[in-house]
Design brief:
The protein has 82 residues and is mainly alpha-helical. The protein is 60% helix and 0% strand. It contains four helices and no strands.
């Protein structure tokens, strides 16, 4: 899975879970300030992504996540870590 595919998954999850417009979701979008997610929403996103990628996500990995691109990078490390 490449970063573009991961971004598409993250974007789809944000649209599906939080009824955001796909046009508002860019790699540089700030999760908390611009997309108005809270910590519970972030947990929901992580759980959703875990199901999609079939791998356990370490909560520590997502503590430093601030933007959509940060989420993509974190998921990319998980998926492509051999």
């Amino acid at each position: 899975m490449d970063k573009q595919q991961i971004f598409n998954q993250v974007q789809s999850a944000l649209v599906q879970l939080f009824e955001l417009s796909p046009d508002d979701i860019k790699p540089e979008s700030k999760l908390f300030e611009e997309l108005e997610l809270d910590s519970i929403d972030a947990v929901d996103l992580v759980v959703h992504l875990q199901k999609k990628i079939g791998k356990k996500v370490d909560p520590e990995t997502f503590k430093s996540v601030r933007t959509v691109q940060d989420v993509v990078e974190a998921v990319n490390k998980l998926v492509n870590n051999k």
